[in-house]
Structure formats: structure tokens, C-alpha cells
TrEMBL record, chain A:
Coiled-coil annotated spans: 349-376
Subunit architecture: Core component of at least two putative endosomal tethering complexes, the homotypic fusion and vacuole protein sorting (HOPS) complex and the class C core vacuole/endosome tethering (CORVET) complex. Their common core is composed of the class C Vps proteins VPS11, VPS16, VPS18 and VPS33A, which in HOPS further associates with VPS39 and VPS41 and in CORVET with VPS8 and TGFBRAP1. Interacts with RAB5C. Interacts with STX17, MON1B. Associates with adapter protein complex 3 (AP-3) and clathrin:AP-3 complexes.
InterPro entries: VPS16, Vps16_C, Vps16_C_sf, Vps16_N
UniProt keyword list: Coiled coil, Endosome, Lysosome, Membrane, Protein transport, Transport
Span of domain Vps16 C-terminal: 640-809
Record-stated family: Belongs to the VPS16 family.
Protein name: Vacuolar protein sorting-associated protein 16 homolog
Span of domain Vps16 N-terminal: 4-420
One MF term in the entry's GO annotations: actin binding
Native species: Myotis myotis
From TrEMBL, chain B:
Record's protein name: Vacuolar protein sorting-associated protein 33A
Organism, scientific name: Myotis myotis (Greater mouse-eared bat)
Subcellular location per the Swiss-Prot or TrEMBL entry: Cytoplasmic vesicle, Autophagosome; Cytoplasmic vesicle, Clathrin-coated vesicle; Early endosome; Late endosome membrane
InterPro entries assigned to the protein according to its UniProt record, in alphabetical order: Sec-1-like_dom1 (IPR043154), Sec-1-like_dom3a (IPR043127), Sec1-like (IPR001619), Sec1-like_dom2 (IPR027482), Sec1-like_sf (IPR036045), VPS33_dom3b (IPR043155)
Membrane topology qualifier: Peripheral membrane protein
Biological function: Plays a role in vesicle-mediated protein trafficking to lysosomal compartments including the endocytic membrane transport and autophagic pathways. Believed to act as a core component of the putative HOPS and CORVET endosomal tethering complexes which are proposed to be involved in the Rab5-to-Rab7 endosome conversion probably implicating MON1A/B, and via binding SNAREs and SNARE complexes to mediate tethering and docking events during SNARE-mediated membrane fusion.
Length: 813, 596
């Protein structure tokens, strides 16, 4: 154990730095790294190498090869570069490779060398060529910054949503800046550049000169600058071998260091971590690596080989032809535990556990010591945390074992922290494996989140591992397994050598009805690859019509879309398809399609009724639907069908009546026309009309009765009543007279009312006594009570008695 | 505030709270002061969900009715349109947005589609060039609105017409969606029964939608045991007959809308001395009718003839209670009396209201014409003289009684005779057209298409078979203390409710033959439950059936179902859902072709 801290190097009083091996590289590089354009993605991402033949003066005779490797050097892709000269390479946050060409075109490749898309950085860039380019990451995504041959900058802060911004000119700039970088402050990307002894800051509107506070005098040029991973800090390397470190806002100096090396460094990057004790910068020259910070001495390493630095959230990765290492500040928990002669609770607990394994009583002594100080909880937590920061599984295990041992002596220690750490480490060890080659540290993993990690595994087509992780971590299916299966399916549909049937079957077999799998997304992908038939087959498995239909429309399978929409019962969807079809097909075909889909047809009819009346007519014509066509015409103007024959006759008649008699007849119903005639005294005409239209006698009588009563033409009414026997009886006559308050006339008819209704009639005219007589005569119980209910006041007292007597008599019998 | 919704076996307040929450969430999305522009049709149903106070709490300061041209001025940050997804409304909205004053302060526009967002409408907005103006475009799935502790309605007026006349299933789709929402809140309903074409479609959609949501396993313990889906066209008869329950008659005579009724004010004038009746109120008296009112809950479902005795009994109880004050001697007794006072006064107010309503109704029901109409209806329903032209109907036409009344009677006769003889049908049609005008030919055509008024097919009248098998006509009806659902129509037992009753006991297998005569398929579907959610019924615990009337339901049918729920040995309690609460008049009206 004494040697465990052998690779720890102190920087100043407070911090240690250690460098350990991640992988010995699996690649078999033919050329030196220095001859290549190199890009390595952060978070243990892939490495791209493009041997740069354009740097040499003469034109290349052979096409260069673009190679992509995992962080462990496993080849992922290799392709011949057939496009123009490349100035710079970089990885986006989605692990897409951005290749910036000299002409300002940016080509985007996937992790497996699959071409995705390209975009241009604008005309100005095209004209002046690209001198230098940087790919940088912001919270919105990945950006590209370009320095053109005219010494102007153009940048786009997010390549996903390309908005080009041309930065203002630096006044009097004649030559390329000696160094430059992108800064990100207040969510805006800036450019910091150094020209001779001056520093300029460009934002989208202005160019301002800036001076780092406390910069040592005598600087005539800046050779290198570096921004920290989180854009918080800036380091400047000057031609005097002096390094200034401060905040990126250039408002505050943190420290400075003079390394006395005037040679321009190959690379300079920050090496810090969240909650770092020390801010340090790693500077690399050809053969030398130096870690400098706020300390009089620096840490120096010798580089045996040409190496490349990759800044990470919590350290720096350094890879060369043969080895891949990680350099970082030793985390607090590890320092506490492993520092020589440490008496921290974690350190004691680790000792105690080791002694316990040796079956030594010392274990007890150590434990007591911790417990007496009441630090056992802290000790356990320290061990758990330190385990997370260890790279070697044996060290992780011994720390976890110590934590587990300590836990036994604690009441109610919440187990989740321990369990989660075990799970996390298991995942981390799995992905750090050399075959997978994602050397994430615990901090990076937490920052990246499991979701993104799963995405990255999916990107590497490591579907089984991703699924195993999901299952191991028991992630909900929708976020976990389903999503991965869906990605797998999307990949599967791109396998052009497999037939549509086989792909569809294979996908359905694996996915089945797994909840949360969107078959329409997979189908969309298949369609994107030009496999429409496969897409249709896949859509068959999609249960959500809302997803199915729009894609079918996009694929121009409108008729299929129509039947799917109808199946779903969602009329809105049906309408959407219909309107789409209407624009797509000529009218005849469109109507034919509708004919085969009755439900769609009726919906479309409704739509037309409200929106396009003319189309409706055509629709009925097409269908030979005379009935509806007739209705349509009636709606519009009135004219068709059998009943309307009568109506036309009536209209003609009404027009004639208007001409001859004056007044308003048009638009009246037949009934009202006859009534109007009677009211106007044209009885002959009225009767003629009634005959012509075969108005039934009963209704004619009602009609005449009402009209004459309205006129209060009692004479004519009486004449009418005697014209023949009334088909409606005489009670209506009584009623209508009473309605007009003419009791005198009413009484005339009351006597003529038939026996059945006589009582009613007599009561109406107020002849209670006679009504009682009739009721008694008819021995009708209901009528008797009716009369009785009409007996009011003293006048009817006698009548009431009479009825009561009759009732009593009837009961006796 | 909506406590009456939680009185039933199923707490429908849960649904109300869920939709209120959704509304609040949407309002909070649009930060700052707001004005709501209403599609007028929605204000009624929304009133049952959220009062103005709720909107006000969420910074709604102004409310407008959606209409053309420019929006009224309002100093608010957000303008929200609450609309049904209809194209004609989109045109108005676009007009509003386009005529917005550019110089004025910029305002944010939002749309809330009720109950469903529509691609079609959004396309229209896009074509009109205003789609981009809306920041939030969302849907508010207000499908089923709780009306009472056991009653839900979609209040979709055109549902019947759309389904049976225009083969437009939109409202069926919404019904299915509404049922899915209900299942999300009250658990999967293990058994679905149905009768009719539309019922079949709704069930299919539900099964389909369930498949779409396979991701989220419903883990709510099921509240409902069964769902019964019934097409209105399985029972076209019931709504045509005049309802004779108290609530039914209020609806028949005055019309109940969104649980409110407007009554002539005269009867409700406050009786003050020395007023001389000078200032009688002229504005209609508006009353809310639901089971929150104790007295109304008691009498609403009674046959109107049994209401009077209840009211007089109540009157005695209340005046006796007020008399109590003379017996109160000690301070404690007086205090107790005073504490009961508000409740007693409310009861007295409620009694006064219902006595007035009962008087109003009695004026109608004792009229001769009402009696004659009822006699004819009852003759038809008991199968007397349905095959020839009816004299009373003739007289009604001749006297130009309201067309709706005439159509209702003719349709009733047609339905009770499985269609009219061609000669009779032609006669009625001619009479109606000659009297009311030829334009009504479209309405007659609609009624024919809906199966309400049609020629008899194959010369066979199936109605007697149906009537006898289902015992639709009961001669010995007890209106005061009913023993059978037939009391709601004083003799006629609503077919729809009889079907529900027979389904619960002894099951539909016993009436296969009649089911075959009635239109549309009958079916049964099961929705398997995970074992943990299967119900173990306590002995004596009633089953709960959700019965959904596709195309509308009448208050009398609701009353009949409530009667079944209350039967001691009934074994089943019902929660009723429908596309629309309706009666014969509103139903026929919805089928009438409006002049363009």
C-alpha cells in the first residue's frame, strides 16, 4: 500500500496530481500523430485521425484516409477522403464528426463514418478560404468558429440550428492572430484573439481591446491560450515563457508561473475538476509535459512519444501511439484515505477492514477509534465516494468492502448510496472495458447522465450492452429498453442487404408489443432510407393512427392513409387525409376513391355542405344520387322530387293570385294560401284550390272554421255549418266561438253537438244545469264528476245536489 | 361547491377535479393577465366545471363572445380562444387576429380546442396565415361533464344527427375518448356490453385506444363492473313519448339546459304587502336543478301525480319545525333552534319554488289538449290503432299546432307500428307539407333517414312482439309507490331501460329473439384485468354499471334507471352517461332542416 501513492505528485501544499493508464492503444498507427489532423471527443469519446496531406506544399497524389477509433484504439470506421482539403476536425456534442473544409463547407459524419449532411459557413468564408477553425461546445450544442484568409471571424453557435454570425473586424489587423479561442459568456459566444502584445475580444457587435490584470511586463506576443472546460478560466502563454492564469472574464488573476521555456507549446489545456482545490494548466511540448498552478514548483513529466491532450470535465486525457492515460487532481476522498499517514476516518476504516480480514484484533482498535470520534458514518461515506474515483476494480472492491464492513456497525444507515455506487461502478467498469472503450470517470458519468450514456452506446451500436444496463438498473421500459430497441430497429432498417420482409419480421419479433416503442419512428427511418415498402410494413404494427397516418401521407400512400384514418374513428384524421387527397388527385379520381369509402364520403359531404356547396353538387352527380341531389336543389332554391311537383303548381298559382288579387301569396304554405283567400273573402277561389290540391274535407272544415271565426263573420260561419254535415262535429264550432267570446253564437252550435261531446259543449257555454241533465241521462260517471267540478258558487248548488242524488241512486242499483 | 357529485356510489367529483386541474394548468401556462374569447356554445358546459371565480383566480380579467371583425379592447397580455374545432370558427378567429391593432401593445394569442385539437382546423389557420400567431395551441379534453352524482353528459347537440344521418362518427370518437379518460380515473371496466351499430363502433375504438396506450398499465382499482353502450336508434320510441316525471315535465315544458331552467317569473314574485303587484319581475326566473337541493333530489324522479302529496307533507313538516320556536324555552334550546334556522329557511325557499313550479306544470297537465295528446300516445304505445290515420293528429295539423308536436306524434305512431303503411305515410306527409309548407320535405326526409318516420317494410309489425316480450306496456301502474319502471311514463316502460334491466338479470340470452329484431348488433367484450385488480365483491354489494346512451337520453329514462338503482334486491346500480340530455322536442328539432 505504501506504493499506492507513488504516482501522486504534489502541486503546492494542497493538491496532488496523478496520472494513470487507461488503455494501451489497440490501434496500429502507420503515421505519427503530428502528421495528422486529430480530434478526440470529450467524455471518453471517439478519436478521429485524418492524415493531412494538404499541409505539405505539393498536392497529394494519394487520397488521405479518415480513421475513427474508440478511445481504446478500436477501429470504428475508415474511409477514403474524397472531398476537398480539410482544415480542422471536431466532434459535436452528439458525437458527430464535423470536418471543416478549406472552402468553408462543413461535412458531418456519424461515428461509423456514415455521411450525415453538410452545410456551408457562408460566401465570405468561401471566397477568403478557411485559415483556421475550432469546434466548441456550449450549453445549446456545438458551434463552429472560422478564421478566414481575410483575418475575419465567422461563427455559428449551434450547428443544429445554423445561424451564421460574422464577427466585427479587428482594426488594423494585417496578419493572422498568433492564437485565438472561443469564449462563452452569458450564453453568447465571443472570440478572444492575440495579435502581438494585444488581446482583442470580439462579440457580435464590437471589438474591444482587453488587458489581463496583473500581466507581467515585457510580453511581446501570446503563443497559446486555453479556456477551461466550463469556460470559467483562461490561461495565456507568452513568448517570455510566462503563464498567466485568471478568470475568462479577464477581470481577475488567479496566479502566474514562469516556466522559462520560450518554445511555443504544442498544446495547453486546463486540468481542474468541479470544486478543485487547485487551478492548474497542463502544457505540452514535443517531449515534455508540465502541470503548473499556484505553486512555485511545477510537476513535470517526460513524454516518450508524440502525444495529444484532451481536456475533460475533471482532468486531462493524454494519448499517444501506444498509450492512453488520464491525468487529474486526486479527489478529496481518495486523498484523505490514501495520503500517507492519514488519520481520516475513511483511512482508518480501510485499515480496520484489512485487519479484520487478517483476523487481527487491530480491526477492533481501529473501529473503536473511529467510533469514539463519532465518525463512522463519515468513514463509510468516504470509502464509498473514494471507490467511485478509483479506476482499478480491485481498489474499488477493497474500498466498498471497507464501507460495507463499517456499515455493519451503524444503525439505520441508509443503504441507497452504497447500492447506487455499486451499480454505477458496475456500469462504469463495463463501459470502460477495452472492447467498448468509453473511459468515463465517475464525475463525468454523473454529469453526462445515464440517458446520454445509453444514447452513446446506441450510437456505437452496442445494443445488447445498453439493454443489459437498462435491465440491470431497472430503468422504466419507456426510457430504457424500449428506446434502445427502437434505435436498434432504426439501425436494422438501414441494412440494405436484408429483404423488407425479413427486416420487418425481425423487428416485430424483437419489439413485439413492447410498451413505448414507436413503430412510426422506425418506419420514418425506413422511409428516410428509401425503403417505402418496408416502412409500410412496419406501420402495420403501429397502433396509434395519429402517428401512422401523417407518415403514410408523406410517403404518398394516401389511400392507405385514408383507410387507416377511417379505422381509427378519428374524424379529424380522416378530414386531414381527405383534404390531402383532394389536392393530390384529380377530381374524378378523388371522387372514385371516396366512393369506395362510404364513411369518408359522408364526412366529405358534410364538409362540402358547410364549405364548398358546388363540390357537393358534383359529388351527388357523380354518385347518381338523385334523392340527395334533389334535396340539394331544394336547399338551394327548391325544385325536384314528386312532392315538389305539387309545389311548383302551387308556386305558379300563387304568382297568378298575386297578379290578379294583389297581396302576398308566394312562400305561403298551401294551407295558409287557402286561409288567406278566405280571409280576403275569395271563398270560391279557396274552394277551387282545396279541390285542386285534394285537401281533405276535415282539414278544409277546420281551416274555414278558423278563418271565418277570425273574421268574426258569424253569418257566413252559420251558413257554412249548415252547408252539409260537419266532418269534424260541432264541438270545434262551440270552442272557436267561445274563444272569440261569442257565447251567443256558441250556444247555437252547442245544441248540434253529438251526444258524446254534448256535456263538454254545454259546460263550455256555461250551461251547467243542462250539462248535468245530459250527464245524468247518460249515466256517465266521468261526465258527472266533470260537471260537478264546474259547479261553483250558490247558483249551482241545486245542480250539485241533483248530481249527488243521481250518483247515490246509481250506486244503489 | 360540487358536493352533490360525490354523493353517489361513484365519486364523480374526482372527474370534475381532474378537468378543473387541467384547466388551471393551461391557464397558468399563459402567464399574465388574460381575456377569454368564448365559442358561445361552450359557456354552458364550462359553467358546470368552473365558475368565473376560478378563472379570475388565474388572472382572467375579461370575457368576450367569439364574433367577427375586431376584438373588443382589453388591456391584457393574453388573448385565449376557447373553441370547438370547427372550420367556421377558425375563420372568425383569423379575422380577429388579423384585424388586431398593430400599434397597440403586443398581445399573445392562444387557442384551447375543446374537446380535441384538430389538424384540419390548424391547417385552416395556416392557410389563413395566422397559425404562427398562436403561442399555445392545446386541447382540453372535456368530453364527459358531470351533471350530477350519477349523471354525465357530453352535451353534444348534434350527436344523434351526425351519427345516424350524416354517418359522422366524430362524437362517437369523443365518446370513446371520454370513456378512456373515465377508465384512467376509475379503473378499467372489465366487461363491455353493447347494442347497436354505434355502440359497436365505440367499443371498437375503445379497444383500439387501449392498444395505443399499452405503455401505461392502468393500476387504478376498477370502480365500474360493466359498461353498457346503447344506441339511441335501438329505442327510438322512448324519447317521443311525453315524460311524466317531475323533472321530465319541467324539461318538456320549459326546457332544462345545462341543469338550469328558466321559468315565467309571475309565480315567483315575492309576496309583499302593499305592493299592489306593481313591479312584477319581467326577467325569467333561473333555477339550478340538481341533487344538491334536498327536496328536488327527492321529487325529481317521481311521477308528477305523486309530487303533490310529497310537497304538502313537506310543507307540514317545515311549518311544524318553525313552530318549534314557541316550545324553545331555555337559552340552549333557542340556540339550537337558531343554528338550524339557515337550513330550515333554505328548505322553505326550496319548497316555495317547487310548489310554484308544480302549479305551473299542473296548469299544463290538466289542460284538455295535454290529456288528449297523452291519450293518443298511450294508445299507440299499447298498440291500439297504430295502423290508420289518427284523428287527433289530423286535427292538430288542421289547427296548425306546433310542427314539432305533430312530427313527434306521427313518428311515435310510425315507431309503434314498425313503420306506417305507405298510404298512411303519404297522407301524413301531404298534410304536413300542405299545411306547414313544402320546405319541410327536407325534415321529413331526415326523419325517414333516421328511421323515425318510415314505410313499413315487409308488411310486418314487430312492435307487438317487442312490447310483449319486454313487457313495455304495464296496465297496473302505481304512480305513487311504483313497483316497475313503467311509472315514468304512466304505463310505458322505456325500452332502453328495460334492456338494461334484463341485462343485469337474467341476462340478454333470454331475449335473443327481440335483440335480433332491434337494429344493430349486440355484443360483449372483456377487458382482462391484472390479477391484483380483480374485484372481490362483498356479499350483498351491488354491481355498478355505467350505461352510455349514444345519441341522447331523457330525464324519464334517467329516473327509471335511478329507480332500478334504488331497488333493494336490484343488485345493480347505474351511472348514466350520454352524448346529450334531451327530450322528444329538442330531439326532433335537432333533426329538422334549418332554412339556409
Amino acid at each position: 500500500m505504501d506504493c499506492y501513492t507513488a504516482n501522486w505528485n504534489p502541486l503546492g501544499d494542497s493538491a496532488f496530481y496523478r496520472k494513470y493508464e487507461l488503455y494501451s492503444m489497440d490501434w496500429d498507427l502507420k503515421e505519427e500523430l503530428r502528421d495528422c489532423l486529430v480530434a478526440a471527443a470529450p467524455y471518453g469519446g471517439p478519436i478521429a485521425l485524418l492524415r493531412n496531406p494538404w499541409r505539405k506544399e505539393k498536392a497529394a497524389s494519394v487520397r488521405p484516409v479518415l480513421d475513427i477509433y474508440s478511445a481504446s484504439g478500436m477501429p470504428l470506421a475508415s474511409l477514403l477522403w474524397k472531398s476537398g482539403p480539410v482544415v480542422s476536425l471536431g466532434w459535436s456534442a452528439e458525437e458527430e464528426l464535423l470536418c471543416v473544409q478549406e472552402d468553408g463547407v462543413v461535412l458531418v459524419y456519424g461515428l461509423h463514418g456514415d455521411f450525415r449532411r453538410h452545410f456551408s459557413m457562408g460566401n465570405e468564408v468561401l471566397q477568403n478560404r478557411v485559415l483556421d477553425a475550432r469546434i466548441f461546445h456550449t450549453e445549446f450544442g456545438s458551434g463552429v468558429a472560422i478564421l478566414t484568409g481575410a483575418h475575419r471571424f465567422t461563427l455559428s453557435a449551434n450547428v443544429g440550428d445554423l445561424k451564421l454570425r460574422r464577427m466585427p473586424e479587428v482594426p488594423g489587423l494585417q496578419s493572422a492572430p498568433s492564437c485565438w479561442t472561443t469564449l462563452c459568456q452569458d450564453r453568447v459566444a465571443h472570440i478572444l484573439l492575440a495579435v502581438g502584445p494585444d488581446l482583442y475580444l470580439l462579440d457580435h457587435a464590437t471589438c474591444s481591446t482587453v488587458t489581463p490584470p496583473g500581466l507581467a511586463p515585457g510580453v511581446s506576443s501570446f503563443l497559446q491560450m486555453a479556456v477551461s472546460f466550463t469556460y470559467r478560466h483562461l490561461a495565456l502563454f507568452t513568448d517570455t515563457g510566462y503563464i498567466w492564469m485568471g478568470t475568462a472574464s479577464l477581470k481577475e488573476k488567479l496566479c502566474e508561473f514562469n516556466c522559462n521555456i520560450r518554445a511555443p507549446p504544442k498544446q495547453m489545456v486546463w486540468c481542474s475538476r468541479p470544486r478543485s482545490k487547485e487551478r492548474a494548466v497542463v502544457v505540452a511540448w514535443e517531449k515534455r509535459l508540465m502541470v503548473v498552478g499556484d505553486a512555485p514548483e511545477s510537476i513535470q513529466f517526460v513524454l516518450d512519444e508524440d502525444s495529444y491532450l484532451v481536456p475533460e470535465l475533471d482532468g486531462v486525457r493524454i494519448f499517444s501511439r501506444s498509450i492512453h492515460e488520464f491525468l487529474h487532481e486526486v479527489p478529496v476522498a481518495s486523498e484523505e484515505i490514501f495520503k500517507i499517514a492519514s488519520m481520516a476516518p475513511g483511512a482508518l476504516l480501510l485499515e480496520a477492514q484489512k485487519e479484520y480480514e487478517k483476523e487481527s484484533q487491530k480491526a477492533d482498535e481501529y473501529l473503536r477509534e473511529i467510533q469514539e470520534l463519532g465518525q463512522l458514518t463519515q468513514a463509510v461515506q468516504q470509502c464509498i465516494e473514494a471507490a467511485g474515483h478509483e479506476h482499478r476494480p480491485d481498489m474499488q472492491k477493497s474500498l466498498l468492502r471497507a464501507a460495507s464492513f463499517g456499515k455493519c456497525f451503524l444503525d439505520r444507515f441508509p443503504p441507497d448510496g452504497f447500492v447506487r455506487m455499486c451499480q454505477d461502478l458496475r456500469v462504469l467498469n463495463a463501459i470502460r472495458d477495452y472492447h467498448i472503450g468509453i473511459p468515463l470517470t465517475y464525475s463525468q458519468y454523473k454529469q453526462l447522465t445515464i440517458q446520454v450514456l445509453l444514447d452513446r452506446l446506441v450510437l456505437r451500436r452496442l445494443y445488447p450492452l445498453a439493454i443489459q444496463i437498462c435491465e440491470y438498473l431497472r430503468l422504466p421500459e419507456v426510457q430504457g429498453v424500449s428506446r434502445i430497441l427502437a434505435h436498434w430497429a432504426c439501425y436494422k432498417v438501414q441494412q440494405k442487404d436484408v429483404s423488407d420482409e425479413d427486416v420487418a419480421r425481425a423487428i416485430n419479433q424483437k419489439l413485439g408489443d413492447t410498451p413505448g416503442v414507436s413503430y412510426s419512428d422506425i418506419a420514418a427511418r425506413a422511409y428516410g432510407c428509401g425503403r417505402t415498402e418496408l416502412a409500410i410494413k412496419l406501420l402495420e404494427y403501429e397502433p396509434r393512427s395519429g402517428e401512422q397516418v401523417p407518415l403514410l401521407l408523406k410517403m404518398k400512400r394516401s389511400k392507405l392513409a385514408l383507410s387507416k384514418a377511417i379505422e381509427s374513428g378519428d374524424t379529424d384524421l380522416v378530414f386531414t387525409v381527405l383534404l390531402h387527397l383532394k389536392n393530390e388527385l384529380n377530381r374524378g379520381d378523388f371522387f372514385m376513391t371516396l366512393r369506395n369509402q362510404p364513411m369518408a364520403l359522408s364526412l366529405y359531404r358534410q364538409f362540402c355542405k358547410h364549405q364548398e356547396l358546388e363540390t357537393l353538387k358534383d359529388l351527388y352527380n357523380q354518385d347518381d344520387n338523385h334523392q340527395e341531389l334533389g334535396s340539394f336543389h331544394i336547399r338551394a332554391s327548391y325544385a325536384a322530387e314528386e312532392a315538389t311537383e305539387d309545389q311548383m303548381r302551387l308556386l305558379r298559382l300563387q304568382r297568378r293570385l298575386e297578379d290578379e288579387l294583389g297581396g302576398q301569396f308566394l312562400d305561403l304554405s298551401l294551407h295558409d294560401t287557402v286561409t288567406t283567400l278566405i280571409l280576403g273573402g275569395h271563398n270560391k277561389r279557396a274552394e277551387q284550390l282545396a279541390r285542386d290540391f285534394r285537401i281533405p274535407d276535415k282539414r278544409l272544415w277546420w281551416l274555414k272554421l278558423t278563418a271565418l271565426a277570425d273574421l268574426e263573420d258569424w253569418e257566413e260561419l252559420e251558413k257554412f255549418s249548415k252547408s252539409k254535415k260537419s266532418p269534424i262535429g260541432y264541438l270545434p264550432f262551440v270552442e272557436i266561438c267561445m274563444k272569440q267570446h261569442n257565447k251567443y253564437e256558441a250556444k247555437k252550435y252547442a245544441s248540434r253537438v253529438g251526444p258524446e261531446q254534448k256535456v263538454k259543449a254545454l259546460l263550455l257555454v256555461g250551461d251547467v244545469a243542462q250539462a248535468a241533465d245530459v250527464a245524468i241521462e247518460r249515466r256517465n260517471e266521468a261526465e258527472l264528476s266533470l260537471v260537478l267540478s264546474h259547479c261553483t258558487g250558490a247558483t249551482d248548488g241545486a245542480t250539485a245536489d241533483k248530481i249527488q242524488r243521481a250518483r247515490a241512486q246509481a250506486q244503489k242499483k | 361547491m360540487a358536493a352533490h357529485l360525490s354523493y353517489g356510489r361513484v365519486n364523480l367529483n374526482v372527474l370534475r377535479e381532474a378537468v378543473r386541474r387541467e384547466l388551471r394548468e393551461f391557464l397558468d401556462k399563459c402567464a399574465g393577465s388574460k381575456a377569454i374569447v368564448w365559442d358561445e356554445y361552450l359557456t354552458g358546459p364550462f359553467g358546470l366545471i368552473a365558475q368565473y371565480s376560478l378563472l379570475k383566480e388565474h388572472e382572467v380579467e375579461k370575457m368576450f363572445t367569439l364574433k367577427g371583425s375586431r376584438l373588443p379592447a382589453a388591456d391584457v397580455k393574453n388573448i385565449i380562444f376557447f373553441v370547438r374545432p370547427r372550420l367556421e370558427l377558425m375563420d372568425i378567429i383569423a379575422e380577429n387576429v388579423l384585424s388586431e391593432d398593430r400599434r397597440g401593445p403586443a398581445r399573445d394569442f392562444h387557442i384551447l380546442f375543446v374537446p380535441r385539437r384538430s389538424l384540419l382546423c390548424e391547417q385552416r389557420l395556416k392557410d389563413l396565415g395566422v397559425l404562427g400567431s398562436f403561442i399555445h395551441r392545446e386541447e382540453y379534453s372535456l368530453d364527459l361533464i358531470p351533471f350530477d352524482g350519477d349523471l354525465l353528459s357530453m352535451e353534444s347537440e348534434g350527436a344523434f344527427k351526425e351519427c345516424y344521418l350524416e354517418s359522422d362518427q366524430t362524437s362517437l370518437y369523443h365518446a370513446a375518448k371520454g370513456l378512456m379518460t373515465l377508465q384512467a380515473l376509475y379503473g378499467t371496466i372489465p366487461q363491455i356490453f353493447g347494442k347497436g351499430e354505434c355502440a359497436r363502433q365505440v367499443a371498437n375504438m375503445m379497444i383500439r385506444m387501449k392498444r395505443e396506450f399499452t405503455g401505461s398499465q392502468n393500476s387504478v382499482f376498477p370502480v365500474f363492473d360493466n359498461l353498457l353502450l346503447l344506441d339511441r336508434n335501438v329505442d327510438l320510441l322512448t324519447p317521443l313519448a311525453t315524460q311524466l316525471t317531475y323533472e321530465g315535465l319541467i324539461d318538456e315544458i320549459y326546457g332544462i339546459q345545462n341543469s338550469y331552467v328558466k321559468l315565467p317569473p309571475e309565480k315567483f314574485a315575492p309576496k309583499k304587502q302593499g305592493d299592489g303587484g306593481k313591479d312584477l319581475p319581467t326577467e325569467a326566473k333561473k333555477l339550478q336543478l340538481n341533487s344538491a337541493e334536498e327536496l328536488y333530489a327527492e321529487i325529481r324522479d317521481k311521477n308528477f301525480n305523486a309530487v303533490g302529496s310529497v310537497l304538502s307533507k313537506k310543507a307540514k313538516v317545515i311549518s311544524a319545525a318553525f313552530e318549534e320556536r314557541h316550545n324553545a324555552k331555555t337559552v340552549g334550546e333557542i340556540k339550537q333552534f337558531v343554528s338550524q334556522l339557515p337550513h330550515m329557511q333554505a328548505a322553505r325557499g326550496s319548497l316555495a319554488n317547487h310548489t310554484s313550479i308544480a302549479e305551473l306544470i299542473k296548469d299544463v297537465t290538466t289542460s284538455e289538449d295535454f290529456f288528449d295528446k297523452l291519450t293518443v300516445e298511450q294508445e299507440f304505445m299499447s298498440g291500439i290503432d297504430t295502423d290508420k290515420v289518427n284523428g287527433y293528429i289530423e286535427d292538430c295539423i288542421a289547427q296548425k299546432h306546433s310542427l314539432i308536436k305533430v312530427l313527434r306524434l306521427v313518428c311515435l305512431q310510425s315507431v309503434c307500428n314498425s313503420g306506417l303503411k305507405q298510404k298512411v305515410l303519404d297522407y301524413y306527409k301531404r298534410e304536413i307539407l300542405q299545411t306547414y309548407g313544402y320546405e319541410h320535405i327536407l325534415t321529413l326526409h331526415n326523419l325517414e333517414k333516421a328511421g323515425l318516420l318510415k314505410p313499413q317494410m315487409g308488411g310486418r309489425n314487430n312492435y307487438p312482439t317487442i312490447r310483449k316480450t319486454l313487457r313495455l306496456w304495464m296496465d297496473d301502474v302505481n304512480e305513487q309507490n311504483p313497483t316497475d319502471i313503467s311509472y315514468v311514463y304512466s304505463g310505458y316502460a322505456p325500452l332502453s331501460v328495460r334492456l338494461a334491466q334484463l341485462l343485469s338479470r337474467p341476462g340478454w340470452r333470454s331475449i335473443e329473439e327481440v335483440l335480433r329484431i332491434l337494429p344493430g348488433p349486440h355484443f360483449e367484450e372483456r377487458q382482462p384485468l391484472p390479477t391484483g385488480l380483480q374485484k372481490k365483491r362483498q356479499p350483498g354489494e351491488n354491481r355498478i354499471t355505467l350505461i352510455f346512451f349514444l345519441g341522447g337520453v331523457t330525464f324519464a329514462e334517467v329516473a327509471a334507471l335511478r329507480f332500478l338503482s334504488q331497488l333493494e334486491d336490484g343488485g345493480t346500480e347505474y351511472v348514466i352517461a350520454t352524448t346529450k340530455l334531451m327530450n322528444g322536442a329538442t330531439w326532433i328539432e335537432s333533426l329538422m332542416e334549418k332554412p339556409v
